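Hello Y.,

Per our agreement to keep a running log of every chain we model this quarter, I'm adding this entry. I've kept the format consistent with earlier entries: sequence first, then predicted structure.
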Amino acid sequence: MELVKFVAVGDKGGKSDYYKYIQSILTGLYEQGYIDFYTLDVDIHTCCLYAICGHICKEAFIVDVAFEINIFNNVKQILIDIRSDSYEIDINRTYLEDLKLCIKRLIIKDWEKIIWLYDEDAYLLSKELYSYLYIVENKIRRFINEFMVKTFGTNWWDYLSDQTIKDKYNARYSMYKKAVTGFNNVDDHLFSIDVGDLYKMLTMKIMSWSPVYDTDIEALLVGRTEGKEYLIVEKIKKQLIVKDDFWENYFKLYFDSEFSESFRQFELNRNHIAHNKILDRAAYNVIRRSIEKIDKYFDNALIALYRNEKSFESIQGALLKYKDLLIETKQNDSGIEIRDNTRILALFKDVLLETSIDITDALRFREDISINTMDIDYNNLEGKLFSARSKVTNQQLDFFYSMKINDEEGSESTLTITGTPNFGSHNEFSVDITYINGAVEYNDEQGYYMPIANDGILKADLDNYLDKVVDFINVELESLKEYVDSISYERVKEGGTLPIADGVYCDECEEEYICIDEGVAEVGICLNCGAYYKISVCERCGQYFIDYEDTEIKICDQCKVYYDRE
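Predicted structure for the entry above:
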């Protein structure tokens, strides 16, 4: 059975003896305990080096690893094909993941890049999560549908204000109903839209027009209208008021303050699975916990909905007032923004908030890092932005912002973000994000203002900031889990011991990275997530174990069972 297949491309060292090279890989696997024996043969017909590997465990199995060396366009490549007829893939069985990642670590320094072609083990993880996602997504749809029917009646779909959601449904429903003729005469609105649209429905606002006399609108209507129709529409849109706010008036009652962020993470992780991105068990555990959190939210919401017997008719007509913000003539004519100090400050603050979310997303699989964002004071031009702290070493990076604002037309304003460690490192971080204000000039022939400088922040500045800050955090707050992985081969090869307790798993993250070497980190701390445990050595078998009871005599659970039997 084919299990895993990947290819390494671009030999960096110009190897002349691939038999010895493959033998060194197998030796590395043997020395690190991933295989207990192997044979290496050459297929003279295919020029393929074929290894048969075995691993001794409770359920003995044989793993075949084929190494096929090829040259394409003068570029050497080696195809690694892992097969087995006796190994059974299971969510809780990590051997295949450990084996493939160990091979990758052993060869990655020797090749330009590694391309993953097939992975039955990763497919199993994705399939498991995708099934769970399907259940939870439909639970969300069920809650929204039942609430809407109870609140607004069976024609609630017509009450929606978000035309983009309706357009998406209209573009899809006919295709779905043709494919499933048994359901072509049922209401399936929520089953034809995306998860992100479900969140939009929870937070959408119903708007209505409250006409107010406006001299600018009158001037546009009675004057030269051609080419300015969009300005009339924009003016009228400013007279819209909030007729109904779904989140504030209805759905907020069913969820806590963490729901929005939890749902956002859920959608990100959902897309990671739905778009067939590869998984390991560490990412699997993070994503599963995210799904479980949303599952619990909507379980509780459905229970609350069933218990709530009161009518919602009294709140259907709730209206929210809003301030009508008039746009200046220059902006109306030119279609660009000319911001004053306050609005440039607000724009920079929005950028800081949005990029803070992007940074958190980029580091979401680093379970050993905690990001603590600050409440930004909109009255200050400088302040603390956020902190990144290692849960393992407690080392912290503090990030600050400062602004230099110039609100003249066409001028530049600068947002500077700096980062400093609170430990021994002397490295510092600094990056600038520039905003260019809009500028216009009056055109005598046309009779209105024309743009000469578009306003905005360069996307390259934002991308540069995000890349640099994430790299800075990853370098300064080193992942000790990855460090242990990187030294494992050499440690074992030289007859040393690993700095983590063998067979001891963290209760929080379920990873096998409990530290036992104070030269790496505090003994008892999980290098993957930072959870701390009292670690002891069993007086009978000499194995490490989590000492929950902290008794005078140190005996692990397995040895306790042994003594009980005696």
